[in-house]
Here is the input.
Amino acid sequence: MPPDKFPPRVINTLAKRVGFHCSNPGCGKSTSGPRTESDAAVNIGVGAHITAASPGGPRFDRGKSQSQRASVANGIWLCQNCAKLIDNDSSRYTIDVLLQWKQDAETKARVAIEKPVLGVHFQVAPELATRRRDQIAEWRGAVVAEKYDFVDCRSKFLSSEIYSSLRPHLLPEVIKKIEAPRTFYIGGARGDNVRQYTLLDEIARIERQWGLI
Ligand SMILES: [Zn+2]
Here is the structure.
């Protein structure tokens, strides 16, 4: 195995973690499909290095060990074009940019496997759909009405019935953000109540996942 290639196990894991799609948000191309022979598949994906495998390569980090350079943590799944692109312009495609692409692509893949396939919600019993719609409206109303970033309101909210009914449906990273003692202002047009708009986004995601919109 050439030293600049990841081990097959790592390549396989990188591809699967993003559902075999290119992790460049501007591309997102599928990287695998059938070959003419019925027992083979085409792969146009590449396990690309976030920091180069060897000195002189793009984004090389001398602080990393050989095994860190060859680990899943140092790889990103891309189509062949995007893999070339990031290595040809490493000052534009920095380590931070690639880590963000990777994180977003993995989140997208997770949401995709949690989301019901199109049409499934038509099979949901009408009473269930109504209950879910009422539940969404109740959560949304409670979150809109309160300002949960203040210390008192935050603990009040975390111990409320509303939150205990909502919590099992939240993504793990959202729970972490909501329950962190300090959630920092990260900017944006919707004001500085990070908890409130994180919860509203998450309720909208659950609404989509339940096939209500
Ligand atoms: Zn691509």
Q: What stands out?
A: The longest strand covers residues 45-49. The chain is about 45% helix and 10% strand. Residues 8-114 form one domain.
